[in-house]
Amino acid sequence: MFHSTIESPTSQTDLGWGQGPSPDYEALATPFRPIFARIRAGAVERELNRTLPTQEIGWLKEARFGAVRLPRAEGGQGASLPDFINLLIELSEADSNITQALRGHFGFVESVVNLGTGPFRERWAARIAAGDTAGNAWTEIGAASIEGFSTHLARKGDDLVLNGEKYYTTGSLFADWIDTGARREDGEGGTVLVPRHAPGVHVVDDWDGFGQTLTASGTTTFTDVVIDPLDVLSDEEKFRYSAAFYQIVHLATLAGIGRALAGDAAAAVGARRRTYTHAAAARSSEDPQVLQVVGRIRGAAYAAGAITLQAARALERAHAAHFGGDAEAEERANSLAELETAQAQTVVSNLVLEASTIVFDALGASAIRKPAGLDRHWRNARTLSSHNPRIYKDRIVGDYAVNGTPPPYQWRIGLPTG
After folding, report:
1. 177-183 vs 134-137, strand pairing mode
2. What are the boundaries of the signal sequence (predicted)?
């Protein structure tokens, strides 16, 4: 079983990953690093035994990790987007399943911090500050239309109720609430916050993907679930850079996988005693060809993190523009945030996918044994890279470069109409 050589909280700069995004970053990250270390300690065992990280997510909830983006006046840490994304890279180094399981929560929090003052924001900022988390239930499979949701709100007597079925409901099994995309009574789309343990809510861990296996990304059904009308948000009220935000969480997760790969590779090579008659040195730790592979992996992780943080700055500008009072400037900032994230997506995923493959070139055949857990890095990276298909992103970027076509802010998947 291979582990990262990083065992105690140390500054990012000292570890060679570069300076944090802001002067405040180390103070923000320091309280969470012991929790990340505890999470990392059991990551391989959880993967081998398919043990869901319920306890580990509980540790983060107790530490109010889910509230770091809330302003301090509302009970959060007031973290900037680059600082927050850097935190996700560190968490993903410990266990990428957990970042993915909390992705829906982070997206909902981003909606809240982009809202103006009012009852909805006050209600939800208080819940988030208290440690509540939200899962995700947006995708519908099978004969679902690309135009809208089958899951819908309707009146039943005096109650507003929700009915429908969702898949890829990542993290909902661990959450207090489920952020659900649905058709409202007026036929328009919206967000419905559903109490996770309400009567009529059924969450099943039937995710059968070969990667990100501990995210509980399975099926959720809603049967006459009573909804508080105050917990319904219209599509018009969602933040406009949401597609870029959800994608950059994937990029942060991939960058964290890259760091985990770098640590695992270095530790395994350092511990290796067996060698080959045709090797370039008596020990792998002195073999220049092996060291070259380890260096390539670490360089890929460094580049993936740097690229991700550069894109995060574009999202920070979009967030600031939302409150700037200039609609044209906000539109441009949103478009550029989506563009920069799209530009980063294929490059970051390629870097980490290659690193997760060549890691085995630095080790012997024993490295492919399941107890080593090294295969999880490729499986997880490949699974994350399959979201929001990469083949479309280079085309979108090229269309912008050649024709000035803005990237799409939102996209759906389903059967086309007509």
Report:
1. parallel
2. none
